Hints:
The protein is α/β, with parallel strands linked by helices. Helices cover 38% and strands 23% of the residues. Helix 2 (103-119) runs parallel beside helix 3 and helix 13 (353-368) crosses helix 14 (399-405).
Amino acid sequence: MTQHCDILLEGGVVVTMDDARRVIERGVVAVRGNRIAAVGTQAELSGWRAQRIVDCSGQAVIPGLIDSHNHLFQVAGRGLGDGMALWQWLSEFMLPRAAGIRPQEAVAAVRVGALEAMSSGTTTIIDNHYAPNDTAATLQVAGALHDMGLRGAVARGVFGPFTDIARDNHLSPLLFQNSTRHEIDSMRECLAEWHSDRVQIWPSPINVIYNDQDLVQGLVQLADEFDVRWQTHCSEAAIDPEIYQQAYGLRPFIWMEKEGLLGHRASFAHAIWLDDAEIECSGARQCGIAHNPMSNQYLASGAMRLRDARAAGATVGMGADGAAGHLMDMFQIMRQMVYVQRLHTLDPEASFAEEAFELATRGGAQLAGLDAGCLEQGRLADIAVVSLRGAHMAPCFNPVANLVYCASGRDVTLTMVDGRVVYENGRATLVDQDEIVHEAHAQCKGLIERLDIPTRRRPSAPVR
Ligand SMILES: [Zn+2]
């Protein structure tokens, strides 16, 4: 019987990530509207007809990759702020610059970052956007993601009052300008004014460690009220739970547990330095953890307890966490996750390519509450097509291993979000990518000059 759809992705190696983890050699994915209509072998789908057929032979067809934690505006400082650990990086580099960035500069950086992500197979981004974070700028950033055709959320990062922990640890007061009341009202305004079928706005107390406790509670209540998720940073640096304990007499996850803030709506960027009781809480409450192995290496933050967190029941997704110092290429981030876990535990079985691929697809979808992350009938049609033709991909015995260990975002030939092709053969389809790149150069150059940000490190001492 003939069946009709809009697009057939035909002849590729289909890595479904369905419950059976089927990999179909010479498979077909049928897309109708914004959903996957069917997945199977060419024989199984021989009766399907489409308005458009995309020849995917010699390529892998995979679920679109999900970046569970990013700060796209940080692209504005690409290549700068090198060689600092988290608190120094925040106090001396990122936060003073964030306080000075203008909306048009942030949006230019967000757009070029989003372009980089979509061109490397990312279909969903949770963009933790905190500068500038007034209502107008927040809606502009959400609009930029929407207009580029992406899915995701702008997790609006909120600083609130200047806390003792922030002051004692030398964070710039410039971003901590608003009262809890003011921030809750602004957050409510953003949530009420924004409407999109693909991009949400989430509340995001920027960091449980140095946010005011009332602010954290108020923002979590707003997430419940508007039926959206919320995200924060927690225990990224080794000292974080210690300074929290000194200030409040208990560890941060234990405080959130006591206050009833933990649950499936919550996702925590990093959550590296959790003790056993905190791991237990994060799992029992089915919290999300956005794991950022590239950033954790770059800032020398540490290696998260991946195996423990997943065994306890936490939902782990994977993120890029800004691109001031590195790429947003989820393929690179996937393999770094495996390497970090193995090096940290000195155990070659600590993690595998299959686990990395799972976190970047199914894990991210679960963390964000999306009906995506695998290719099966009825799911959202968020898909990437990746060339297997390069020398670095030959031979290909285990497609998932090749994708994780050998592929790069530059192998992506097509990215589809919500059933619509948003990137194909080197070009974004809905926006002018040359204009986006040009504008990023121009706006970010202006920012760096205005804020007098050094672009060269002092030379290190010569080796004798
Ligand atoms: Zn972050």
